[in-house]
UniProtKB/TrEMBL annotation:
Keywords: Cell membrane, Hydrolase, Lipid degradation, Lipid metabolism, Membrane, Transducer
Record-annotated C2 domain positions: 256-382
Gene3D superfamilies documented for this protein: C2 domain (2.60.40.150), Phosphatidylinositol (PI) phosphodiesterase (3.20.20.190)
Keyword Cell membrane on entry: yes
Reaction it catalyzes: a 1,2-diacyl-sn-glycero-3-phospho-(1D-myo-inositol-4,5-bisphosphate) + H2O = 1D-myo-inositol 1,4,5-trisphosphate + a 1,2-diacyl-sn-glycerol + H(+)
Name this protein carries in UniProt: Phosphoinositide phospholipase C
SUPFAM superfamilies xrefs: C2 domain (Calcium/lipid-binding domain, CaLB), PLC-like phosphodiesterases
GO terms, molecular function: phosphatidylinositol-4,5-bisphosphate phospholipase C activity
Cofactor: Ca(2+)
Amino acid sequence: ILNIFFGAVRRTLTRPVELIKCLKAIRDHAFSVSDYPVVITFEDHLTPYYQSKVAQMVTKTFGELLYRSESELKEFPSPESLKKKILISTKPPKEFHDQASSSSKDETCNLNVEQMLVAWHDWDDQTGEENAVPQYKNLIAIRAAKPKGVKDIWAIDPDKVRRLSLSEQELENAVNTRGTDIVRFTQKNLLRVYPKGLRLDSSNYNPMLGWMHGAQMVALNMQGYGKYLWIMQGMFRANGGCGYVKKPNFLLEVTPSNEVFDPSDMPRTQKTLKVKVYLGEGWHSDFRHTHFDRFSPPDFFVRVGIAGVPADEVIKQTKAIEDEWLPMWNEEFEFPLKAPELAVLRIEVLEYDTSGKNDFGGQACLPVSELRTGIRVIPLHNKKGDKYNSVKLLMRFEFL
């Protein structure tokens, strides 16, 4: 799921990029890993004139790859039916039409817009502003809308579907009183959650809050790294890493009494995961011999835990093995799970430091739903999520 910001209102610390370059890059690489659909979210503030320009550019660049619907959708097609398709998601342009209708194209664009229009001179410039809104509107496969005023944002329209976008803070506030309403809303509609604007350091929030309430699009900052980005990478290692993971059945079900899953009222333990950490190897090959300690071999220990619904969240750790490049722990842990379908097993190796600032030695996050019983070799990754050449753990998994 990709976000493209353009227009006069959005201000960021990054340099603008020509829209045509973004679109061509998406076209050329959209399906290099998976055939499943790519959703492009437009965050735009365009006058009708520039809506027309965007419509021409998108149509010409994507051609047959672009998914169009002849009428407003009453339900979303399945990802399986949309393979090799690109979908545009944004607000219908009506709200921009009125505010711009009294201005000329020269008055309504500023430097930001002009910079992104550098390569547009070779596009057909004959379409008038009066046709811009219909052209642009016809591109939109997934309509974004947030009801105004006193109307309930979680209201469900039986005749149409929509995408609702909330900041992480808005979601946190809503789940306190409307948890089941959010779950019910996401059974038919799409919910997109994005980081709050104050995260200038590109830090992230816990994606589990959105996932456990049925949110399909939980957007994270990809510029940095950290445990929440690792959890996201772990969740989407499921289903072959295609970028789509089936929502758990309990988030889709409605009981005969018209009740839905309540994230604040978790059921009993569904299964217990038993994890044994045997040994680790590979640091001697992938790291300088003085990386962890200048004068002696490292003192590694392993943190093992669950990222998931609050009732399942836990972290445990082995003892530190002193002065050993090939540590053997032979320690076992049990994790009772109430929602194993949403659980991600977190593994992190650290090198003990008496100063309290332990050195990083590798990490892996794995979807519990795809773990298989038996002894397994688990490759570890660096902070950015790239796999090390040699570092790995020998572990055993068992379900009770």
